[in-house]
Amino acid sequence: MRRVALAVTLLVAACLCGPAPRSSATTGCAPGGTPAPAGAAERKVGDLDWDGQPDTLWVGQFRDDSGRTARVVGVTTASGANSDVQVPSASPIPLTALAIDAQQDGQHQIIVSDGRGAHLYVFADCRLQTVSDNQGAPFLFDLQDLRGNGTGIGCGNLGPPMPGRHLVGLRASDQDGQWTVRRTEIDLNGTLATIGQSDTLTASSAQDPAVVSAQTISCGDLTISKDGVRQP
Asked: The pTM is what?
């Protein structure tokens, strides 16, 4: 069966353990694992396993043993190592995935959007792992303000007490023509995501760059529409 080990994989991914530190002893991944399913969309991304070669991010779907369609996102390294996770989503919108290095520290995250929200994964120890909050639940972003938490995702530097670039949850809102963008810092430590400080920007219109960027997913020069991979 193609996904026999899936439950075990997800249980392991839920642990709040960090990736191995970057070093020459941990570069590259041994070939193996289940390749992308037929028809999956693929895109070359950066070097996720530190072997100096670009790797491949992919999004696809398969039918499980009960005949239901399951959606998956995965990574195939240049050495032929494969790792994937099933993405839980009831949204009819195709999945789109974007690979980033949010904190510019050599660690790599995968944001997976279903249009309504976004799941967060980290590629560490040669496998995709679910990022969890401090309660042990999978960390989720709101993308349509369905829970009043957000409309987009970005990367930015909100300054002390945690200077440097971080993943940022964004929420654009309009009150009688006055736009505001709330930015909330997300501190990443391996597979643990912790909510940090917030601030609020003001904008004069819906066309303001801060408002526009708060309604999509981006990180630095990368955007999910330009640099992501979309499920067929």
From this structure: 0.86
